[in-house]
Amino acid sequence: MFNNMEILSLLFMDDIALRPVPGPSTRIDLTGIQFSAPAPGPAPVTIAPHLIAFVWAPPDSKGFGALTVTFHKEGEDPESEPLARNVQALQIEPGKFNYSLVRADLLFEDYGTVIARARIDDGPLRLAPYTLMPPVA
After folding, report:
1. CATH code that applies to domain 6-130
2. What was the pLDDT predicted at 1?
3. Any idea where the domains of the chain sit in the sequence?
4. Predicted TM-score of the model (pTM)
5. Residue 23 confidence (pLDDT)
6. DSSP code string of the chain
7. Would the pLDDT of 18 be above 70?
């Protein structure tokens, strides 16, 4: 049996800001959503893009689990050793939403795409690509 918490969205981004609105409710403002970026210098280079996972715990969920994110080169066997791995405990009140920030140092030997592979416990897999391009001259 797997935890029925759901990853609603998985995005690379620059910044997040929370602001209250009447209700009570909260708005989440994201800036710099990205799927690619120029390298800060020639390869090989290490970068640390910020990944955000938005998670919902349905009313009948247990409200806790483990978020596991692995990063693999595009086309690489997902069972191979990842470039990076991040595991975080999640606790979300059933019926509510939350988010989790994931940061990993990724060594790019050359320009190309890395795939973030995220899941909660044994739940469905969610993917997010990130492409590193040559530096801008």
Report:
1. 2.60.40.10
2. 42
3. 6-130
4. 0.90
5. 85
6. -----EEEEEEEESEEEEEEETTTEEEEEEE--BSEEE-SSSSSEEE--EEEEEEE--TTS-SEEEEEEEEEETTS-TTSPPSEEEEEEEE--TT-EEEEEEE--EEESSSEEEEEEEEETTS--EEEEEEEEPPP-
7. yes
